[in-house]
Amino acid sequence: MHRLKDISNKDIPLPLYGSEIIDDVFCRFCISDFSAPLVVTFSHMGHKAQKADGLDSYKPWAFDFVKSCGFNSISFSCLGATNWYRSAKLEDELKLLSPLLDRFEVKLGYGGSMGGFGIGAFAKVLKLDRVLLINPISTLNADIAPWETRFSKWRNELDWSHGSFDGTDFESTGYVVYDPLYDLDRKHAFRYKNLTHLKVPGVGHSMPLHLKEMGALKKLFIDFANNQLDLHWFYKKVRNRKLYPRYYKWMLEHCKRTTPSRRKVISRHYNALNGYLGKSSSETDKLFGALRKAAIKLESTDLTLALDLMMQAKKIRTKSPFIDKKIIEYKRKLGQT
What we know:
alpha/beta, Rossmann fold, eight-stranded mixed beta sheet, 13 helices, 14% strand, globular, AB_hydrolase_fold
């Protein structure tokens, strides 16, 4: 098992694979090609390591995903209790790690929510070239973000006045993805002046999940990593959220800007979509069959699209062992399981 400091040793054969604990943070890394981009990730609040569960097989958020895309990965997650990566020892260790990463031609950051804070907080220390932040929390410093009300426990218990406490204090370029109708996430996003803003209205927080279910997450990440993101493609995908039930559900339950007349329209569409996805008529049976047939035909040429079609078929017929089997098969081949 290797250590992070081994990155500086040019005589060690690749791949370098290992893990280590830095104070209250767990790190796992895999370095396979120094000419390929390095992607640093920080896990969100719902994905943390537990010593009691054993750490030999634990993978921080996005670690396997980044590897499956052919990139080098250094991934961090909280160890035990949620700590927002506020450890002074962690910051000191990252400062020591930073010059070792100069071997990589391209250094990227990727994280969402609390993980987005982690990337922003240490982007300058790690000298990241570009970042992809998904509904990031920019800081819990009460003077900077007094309107943030969701994380009062950690605002009160942790030090937000020393070290890298502001997740917008960096010069890297890149993208921030958020729902402009969700006021708290929008206020955080507006603090990232040097990033291109990608807006996905009407889905709320948990943006990686929404992007994944809309079939946009993987291509968004890969295109970002390759520095060739197509904004026309992205917003075309975003418009398809009107076929995504959670869009209507969030708009009805959480959007404060929805007028009564607008709520009626949204409710009508939501009920119609749920009815369409749940009923078993000859029309939906034909659509189900067409999606399944097209996915199977694409298995050998475009597995990502095949998976997307199978996921759409599953929305029409939720209880189909064949569809479930195919989805598991495709995800395994794509490295998503």
